[in-house]
Every structure is written in C-alpha cells, then in structure tokens.
Amino acid sequence: MKKNINRRDFLKRLGLGAGVTGLALTGCDGKSKELTKSDTALTEIPTDRMTYRVNPKTGEKVSILGYGCMRWPTKSGKSARDNADEIDQETVNRLVDTALAHGVNYFDTSPAYCKGRSEHATGVALARHPRDSYYIATKLSNFAPQTWSREASIAMYQNSLKELQTDYIDYMLLHAIGMGGGMEEFQKRYIDNGILDFLVAEREAGRIKNLGFSYHGDIAVFDWALANHDKYKWDFVQIQLNWMDWKHAKEINPRNTDAEYLYTELEKRGIPAVIMEPLLGGRLSNVPDHIATRLKQREPENSVASWAFRYAGSHPDVLTVLSGMTYMEHLEDNLRTYCPLVPLTDEETQFLYDTADLMVQYPTVPCNDCKYCMPCPYGLDIPSILLHYNKCVNEGNIVKDSRAENYAEARKAFLVGYDRSVPKLRQANHCIGCNQCVHHCPQGIDIPKELHNIDHYVESLKQNTI
C-alpha cells in the first residue's frame, strides 16, 4: 500500500531542516538575486534553493539536476550497471528521498539500464511519493532486432508503465537514435513498424506528456529528425554536451559531432536540451593530474566535477543535466553545485575551453564506460581494459621510451594495475578481432584496434622492449 507524506514530515524524517537561507537563480520561492561563488560552498545543503528551468510547452519547472538511473547501487556496493548483484532498494529509496527533498524532480531511466532492473527499482522508490512531485523520463530501448517489431516495441512501452507504477510517462524518448546501423536501423526501429506514429498518438492521448529522442552516432539521423520537427514536434532532445565535446568531439573521435552544433541546432528550433555525459563518462572528473591542479587552483573548495556540471547548466536552453549518482557523496556534491547554480562567467567558460585544448593532447580512448559493447563473446572486459589505459594516460604512466626518467615506476603501475583491474582471461590479448563490439559503440571506437594496441604495449612492457 502506498503512503504519501507531506513535505514537512518528509524532511523531518530525513533529518533536514527548512534549509540554509541563500540566494538562487530561480529557487523554489521564484525569487532571483545576485550570487557569489561562496554561496555554493555551504556546510549544509539547502533544501529550497534548487535551480529550475521552465519547459516552454508545459510550463513545468524542471530541476537543473536530473537523476540518471543507470547506476543504482547493489547490495555489494557496486553499480548495478556493472554487475548482476541484487539492487539495494533501501539505498535507492534513500537516494531518491534525499534528491526529492533537495528539489530534484527529474528521474531518467530505461528498460535497458541496470541489466533491465532500473525501471522497477526507480518505480518502487518514486511510488512512495505523490505522483505530481516528480517527472519520469524513460525510453523505448528497442536495440535488438527481435524488439523491432511493432508488437515487441509496444510490449516494451507497456512494461515500462507497469514497472514504473504509473499510467503516464512525463518524458518519453526514442533511445540512442543514430547508434549502430545509422539511418537504416533507425527506420527499422521506429518508422517502418509505425512505432513513432504510435508514440505520437500516445502523446495526443495524454499517456506521454513530452516526446523526444536521445542521439548517439550518425549525424544524418539527428539531422533527419530535426528536419521533420514540424511533423513530429519534438518536445525535447537529449544530447551529449560537456566542455570537451563543445569543440573537440571530432578530435576525440571522428564519428562524433561537436556539441556546439547539436546544441545550436536545437536552439534554432526552440527545442529544450536534456544533457547526458556532462562528465564525458567520468573523464572530466578523473582528469590528468596537472589538469586537476589547474582546476583546483581556481576553485580549491569545489570538486573537479563541479566545473563540468556548472558548464552544462550554464547554457540557457538546457532543461536538465543528468548525472548517474550511485553514492550519496555524488548526489551531495551535485546538489552543492545546483542549489543554486552559479552560471559560469564568460572568462570561466574560456578558461574551460583553454583547458580542453590542453586535455585533447592526451591520447585517451574515448570510452564512456556505457558497456553497450558487452558482453564480449570471447569474455573480454572491454571497458575495464580501456579505462585502465586511460587512467594510466591521465596519471602520466604511459611511456614510449625505456630511458624515460619514470619508466620503472610507470611500468610497474601499468602492469600491476592491469592485473588488478582486469582478470587475465579477460585481458586484451584474448581479442580475436571479431568486430561484434564495434557496431554497438555509441562513440564509434575501433575497439579491436585499440585492444590490439594496448596488448602490444603490455607485451612491450613485459619484455622491456619499448
């Protein structure tokens, strides 16, 4: 039996007061005053100073911080995106309660997240609260060919309603258009089977309040969707945007499109943007040491990650910025950034663009740890291999010459860390180049090529032949 409680009792149960008096861009009280950076560095996180953006179609006030439900915690303490351990529903409930208490009202999930368990866990946590206190975003994640039929896609949509314990979806997305087979695959997933027309009809019936799509990969699909905006009337679009991808997305990966183009095309049409990957798969919180020092010198009291969240939120046509927050400390750090948001100045924005110019010189593999490449038919742990390599790049532990001053230290750090991060039977030397993973990568990484390069580097370190 569901039991709704009022906000006062809810805050009391969480041990939260009315919140620290502060200044907000647009707070719950609707007032706006000038802000200083010190206002965000409070010991207590205020419960009434979340920044909101207004949906131009509905007038809804959406929190600038959106909860990405891809990484719910498990009872083993790990992310449910990474393993099949039982989701820790009690902790999920506590995270949702804390988020709602501080003004977060947008929760983004998918039938594909947490190995198919995210919608259920999200639904259980949210159903304990009044339905009008939050917005649910979910997706038609019909990636596999067996889900492309009209019947299978409709069944997926109806199951989302069931798992989320609701009779309507606030924000419904076509999931990851442009990924994999490009325009041909998009046609099969959404056009030929009449599913896009079905979703439009569901919007007209009120069971979907806002209809949009998330974009990965082939820019032709993005351009086609926007060229047909008059027909489908997209209410919002989810794009990847961060201070690296604004101008350097193609340099990171030639298949990607700079976020500046994506955002500007939406801005021209008055379509609100929902932002994913503000941290570029965590790479903008785990930056090279000298980059971290550069950022911390400017804002010693704030996290490295806060720069990325302030950057994403500073764009005026951004409706909400998604963050997959597995742990309470992640949620609290982001709440400090957005309760309230202090937008970047022009000088700070240029500082980040200059920092991006420095970052692009570091040859990391553009892996966002999305795990769409998994499972590998030959058992490789592809994301862990790539992430370990990137970590060593960022820490200066990739060497090209055995005569380098830090060669012995870097060699040990890479090899020992590799064995600890990736079991031997799942390491890069077991890749046979079947290319199955390549078609699933939203970043368009030539994964076998990168794995073979890493394996060659590992062997060179082992044989001391660099």
Q: Can you walk through the features of this model?
A:
- The structure is a single chain.
- This protein is an alpha/beta fold and 466 residues long.
- It has two domains: 321 residues, Alpha-Beta Barrel (TIM Barrel), CATH 3.20.20; 82 residues, no CATH class.
- It is 40% helix and 11% strand.
- It is built from 17 helices and ten strands.
- It has an eight-stranded parallel β-barrel with strand order 3-4-5-6-7-8-9-10, surrounded by six helices. It has a two-stranded antiparallel sheet with strand order 1-2.
- Strand 3, helix 2 and strand 4 form a beta-alpha-beta unit.
- Helix 12 crosses helix 13 and helix 15 packs antiparallel against helix 16.
- The longest helix has 17 residues.
- The radius of gyration is 22 Å and the shape is globular.
- The chain starts with 6 loop residues before the first helix and ends with a helix.
Q: What is the CATH T-level topology of the largest domain?
A: TIM Barrel
Under CATH at level 1, the class of the largest domain stands as Alpha Beta
Helix content: 40-55%
Domains, number: 2
Order of helices and strands: HEEEHEHEHEHHEHHEHHEHHEHHHHH
CATH superfamily heading of the largest domain: NADP-dependent oxidoreductase domain
Tally of separate helices: 17
Span between N and C termini?
Answer: 65 Å
Under the CATH scheme, the architecture of the largest domain is: Alpha-Beta Barrel
Q: Major β-sheet, in short?
A: 8 strands, parallel, barrel
